[in-house]
């Protein structure tokens, strides 16, 4: 099969033929219909994740059809159209049995623990526990972002921060996951402030639910926080760092209202220094969101199917494998506005 392969961290990805995978016990092989290009793929590609072995095939957001099933799989058949959370739980530990597979200690992740979806085929483990059927009605552009961006933002806002209608939310960093958070927060009835250094990203955020936009190009974290507060005259009850820089985390924490909830989605290249005195003094909650277990997809899929959420509207580019290598390596310096879909 054809796949996008990186030989060593930071190397130029190459499209080449590699052996097609076989379905492992309990797992499946999917024929990849489409995959999503995410900044997390860039972190893996340049070596920020010590668990990633090279040579490596990235790609953790996907939709496809079951091509073959391994021994012990009972819920899925060849031809089923499915997606999966990017964190695949083992299916039998205490966390998986409690419906919290996103923190499974024995998790697998396509594009991280094993070859991913920037290929014609991909393996998914513990299929009966992890796969999510999506049927035939939804376009690939609506399904692919559900594997990581929308699932992570949905869990962060809905389940971790327990966002209420009418609350003020500041989303800092309006790439793919940030725009997902903007769209989800607006659909949940929140008031949304979009924060970014890119006018194009802010334009997309306002088109998809943000009431206010704050351009922070050239501002330090405190000035950015002041600009967020000035936008509405109040501090947000919830902040989301969708980028993962020390400056964006500091901006979020400095702008939060007392007793506010911060949702950290963006990954860091290095451990950040945080505003611990303010976290303590204002009793702020610092919440992580690491995807969502397959059992949590019901409400999210319902919102996509009935049109309250339209992930496909955030897709701004569709490319092939030949273009994917350059697009992947550009994510570090210039993440694209919106979501890029790869069709192997």
UniProtKB/TrEMBL annotation:
It comes from the Bacteria. Residues 10-342 form the Enoyl reductase (ER) domain. PROSITE patterns: ADH_ZINC. Keywords: Membrane, Metal-binding, Oxidoreductase, Transmembrane, Transmembrane helix, Zinc. The chain crosses the membrane at residues 168-190. Gene3D superfamilies: Medium-chain alcohol dehydrogenases, catalytic domain. Its cofactor is Zn(2+). Belongs to the zinc-containing alcohol dehydrogenase family. This is Alcohol dehydrogenase catalytic domain-containing protein.
């Amino acid at each position: 099969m054809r796949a996008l392969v990186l030989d060593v961290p930071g190397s130029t990805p190459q499209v080449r033929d590699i052996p097609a995978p076989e379905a492992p016990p309990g797992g499946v092989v999917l024929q990849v219909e489409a995959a999503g290009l995410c900044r997390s793929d860039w972190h893996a590609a340049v070596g920020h994740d010590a668990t990633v072995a090279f040579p490596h095939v990235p790609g953790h957001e996907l939709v496809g059809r079951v091509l073959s099933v391994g021994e012990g799989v009972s819920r899925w058949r060849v031809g089923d159209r499915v997606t999966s959370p990017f964190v695949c739980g083992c299916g039998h530990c205490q966390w998986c049995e409690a419906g919290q597979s996103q923190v499974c200690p024995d998790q697998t992740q396509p594009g991280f623990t094993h070859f991913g979806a920037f290929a014609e085929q991909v393996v998914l483990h513990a299929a009966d526990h992890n796969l999510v059927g999506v049927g035939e009605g939804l376009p690939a552009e609506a399904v692919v972002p559900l594997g990581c961006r929308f699932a992570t933002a949905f869990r962060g806002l809905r389940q971790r921060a327990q966002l209420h209608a009418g609350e003020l939310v500041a989303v800092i960093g309006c790439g793919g996951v940030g725009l997902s958070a903007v769209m989800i927060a607006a659909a949940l009835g929140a008031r949304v402030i979009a924060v970014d250094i890119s006018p194009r990203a802010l334009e997309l955020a306002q088109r998809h639910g943000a009431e206010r936009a704050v351009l922070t190009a050239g501002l330090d974290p405190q000035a950015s926080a002041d600009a967020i507060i000035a936008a509405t005259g109040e501090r947000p009850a919830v902040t989301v760092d969708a980028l993962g820089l020390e400056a964006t985390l500091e901006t979020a924490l400095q702008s939060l209202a007392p007793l506010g909830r911060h949702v950290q989605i963006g990954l860091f290249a290095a451990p950040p220094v945080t505003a611990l005195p303010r976290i303590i003094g204002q009793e702020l909650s610092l919440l992580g969101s690491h995807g969502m277990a397959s059992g949590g997809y019901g409400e999210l899929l319902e919102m996509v199917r009935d049109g309250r959420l339209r992930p496909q509207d955030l897709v701004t580019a569709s490319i092939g494998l030949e273009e994917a290598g350059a697009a992947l390596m550009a994510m570090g310096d210039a993440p694209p506005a919106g979501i890029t879909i790869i069709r192997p």
